[in-house]
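FAQ: What does the model actually see?

It sees only this:
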Amino acid sequence: MDAIVKMLEKHQPFFEKISRNIYLQAIKDGFLGCMPIVLTSSIFLLIATLPGVVGITLHQPLIDWCNKLYNFTMGVMGIMVAGTTAKNFTASMNRRMPAGKVLNDGSTMVAAQCSMLLLAVTQFTTKFDGSELSVFDCTSMGTRGLFSAYIAAFITVWVYKFCVSRDLTIKLPKEVPGAIAQNFRDIIPFGGAVIICGIIDVVVRNLMGVPFSELLIKLLSPLFTAAETYPGLILIQAATAFFWFIGVHGPSIVQPGIDPIRLANQAENLQVLLAGGHPAHSLTFNMSLVGEFGGTGATFIVPLLLILFMKSKQLKAVGKASIVPVAFAVNEPLLFGAPMILNPYMLIPFVAAGCVNVSVAKFFIDNVGMNGFSFVVPWATPAPIGIFITTNFQLIALVFVAIIILLDAIIYLPFLKAYDKLLCDQEAERAAELGLESDGAATIAASTSAPAVEQATASVEPTAAATDSKPVADQPEPAADASAKKDVDGLKVLVLCAGAGTSAMLANAIKEGAAQTGENIASSAGAYGQHTAIMDQYDVIVLAPQVRSYYNDMKADTDRLGIKLLAPRGKEYIDLTRDPAGAIKWLRENLD
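And it is asked to produce this:
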């Protein structure tokens, strides 16, 4: 097992390079920027449909109003994603532009949205009340047009880069106000992007007889079909867990490529459900509630197993500290506290549990009558509740939840017991070395990390693994002297993670520590990818371990803006979230 971990460590730089790919980052961050559309539109959809499940009949005008809000949010998501993807891709491209040359992200955003419409939407005329009307086919404006959105975004930004880097722009006299001059500078690249996408649209329609968005779906349909088989679902889930295990945020690599089909399938499930049929798609957006049941690795049951069945004081403490966050799919305290990442004992269950879960889900959907997921719920919804809601409140879904909880417990328990025995032996050895009673030594051992895992992971560089973290103070920080206090007084700190869940833990600890020590420090939590518009308002940015692989890209931006960038390691980060006064001390030490 140790040999496997060493092999993974050897290839980790390659996997991190994949996670930092600017195209994958732009897709992920662009989609993340549109998540309010997904979640908000789903609320109106739930209002319109769920009362009927319990026999409540709403007034038709209210149903029509909710459906209109859904159609004009989720129904145009493809257009919005084209803009947000282009905006994030522009930010990445600007880091690679020659000095003094910058792409206008507002202009690339609008150009990408226009280009997406050309690639995905069909315009035709129809007669209504004796008059001819020009009509847009809205089918591909939503999730069905996401591939067109990505292609339009990338083409647009590359056209802008080509024109701006070669000064192919309209230049006005320096007396012209900057805002007006910028508009004229954007005319040529804007026109170029739109014309190129327009030509692609004409060529595809004349050669294939379908719009560009339909061409991609047609060409990739074998891949989508294969992805919805048992091997396909298992491969997707195994890859997500595998990347997380080696310290690279797995969903950032795996999900961007499958999000369009997951959303399209979920929308199709919804249509079938509303028509009274059986939603049969298993590869859907909220399948993550199953494969990542409690977080990547399907860790929902693990904290309870640690509390009830483990003897090691360390694992019991980790279980108590992580049981609430894991219930809401924030499992970093468990991943870095146990640790599970790059822990040889945890590789097999960490990958296998999610794979088993998605296989059982597909079996229930195909053979037992459980609905495929139709509604979208927030990612932090406790998984059992989310599964019950998004299957349209089926009782069979509760049976399914009970089964996968039992299976996950069976998968994890033997490996946890083996790891627990190792830790108990190490705690006993420490007790013997220190000449202390066993109970007292166990208490001391509970506050330290497991040496065996530290040895296995010590060679890992910029990852989120639980490695060479500095000890964090266990007692309240004594009052700082005037010079130290001045260093942090008035600071604004932004903590970033993948989904604003883990970052909120440290941001809250900093707020609490500031109150304890009397410091004037403001802290906020955010998701990486949504920070570009607000980062210049902060003095310090802290990267959570799960997004530490983006350190170099972030460093270029923070250096340009004069912002201090900090990136604590896995266990160090978790310790800081539990020690508010220590978090303030850590800020002081790292601002010297």
